[in-house]
Design goal:
It is a single chain. This protein is of the alpha/beta class. The protein is built from 7 helices and 7 strands, in the order βαβαβαβααβαββα. Helix 4 packs across helix 6 and helix 5 runs parallel beside helix 6. The longest helix is centred in the C-terminal third of the chain and has 20 residues. It is globular, with a radius of gyration of 16 Å.
C-alpha cells in the first residue's frame, strides 16, 4: 500500500498529523522511533513523544535498521518518526553516503510493498542557514537526497508549515498537466 511522506521544519506539526492519521485509520498502530537519548534534552523529547502515543500502540525503537522494522507487522498502520534522526544515526555509525542512499531507497521500496498504510516523518533542513562544517553539509545533502528518494515512491508527500499541510507535486506532472497554463 502506498505511504505518505510528511516533511517540514521543527515544530511544524509533522508528528501531530501522523498521530491523527494513525488514529483515524482504526487499525493497530506500530510506531518506529529512531531517536536515541544522547543528552537530557533529547531524553525529555523522547519521553514527551512516548506520552503522546496511546498505550495500545506498539513501539519499536530502532535507530538504524528501520527497513527491517517495516517488515514486522504488515497489517498495522506504521509511523516512522523520523528519517532525520535515522540519517544522523547512520552517519555517526560511519556508513558511507552510497550506503545511506541505498538504505533510503530500500526503505521506500519496502514501504510501497506493505499491505497497510504508513506515514514517514522527516525534516526539511535544506531551507536554513548553510552549514559551516563539512559534516553539517554532508548531513544536509544526504537528508535531502534520502527525502527526495522517499518522495519519489510515496503516494503523497506533504510539507507541514505552522500545523498546516501543503500537498507537494512532482514538477514533471505539473509541467505536463493540461490543467496548468503554458
Amino acid at each position: 500500500m502506498p505511504f505518505t511522506l510528511v516533511i517540514g521544519g521543527a515544530r511544524s506539526g509533522k508528528s501531530s498529523l501522523a498521530l491523527r492519521l494513525a488514529t483515524a485509520s482504526a487499525r493497530p498502530v506500530t510506531f518506529v522511533a529512531t531517536a536515541q537519548a544522547g543528552d537530557d534534552d533529547m531524553a525529555a523529547r523522547i519521553d514527551r513523544h512516548r506520552d503522546e502515543r496511546p498505550a495500545s500502540w506498539s513501539t519499536v525503537e530502532e535507530p538504524s535498521a528501520v527497513a527491517d522494522a517495516v517488515d514486522r507487522d504488515d497489517d498495522a498502520f506504521l509511523i516512522i518518526d523520523c528519517v532525520t534522526m535515522w540519517v544522523a544515526n547512520l552517519i555517526f555509525a560511519d556508513r558511507s553516503d552510497d550506503d545511506i542512499r541505498a538504505m533510503g531507497r530500500d526503505l521506500g521500496a519496502r514501504l510501497a510493498e506493505r499491505a497497510a498504510s504508513a506515514v514517514v516523518i522527516s525534516n526539511e533542513v535544506g531551507m536554513g542557514i548553510h552549514p559551516e562544517t563539512e559534516l553539517g553539509r554532508r548531513y544536509r545533502d544526504l537528508l535531502g537526497w534520502v527525502n527526495g528518494d522517499l518522495a519519489a515512491v510515496a503516494e503523497r508527500s506533504l510539507l507541514m508549515v505552522a500545523g498546516r499541510a501543503t500537498l507537494l507535486h512532482d514538477p514533471i506532472d505539473l509541467l505536463t498537466s493540461k490543467d496548468v497554463p503554458a
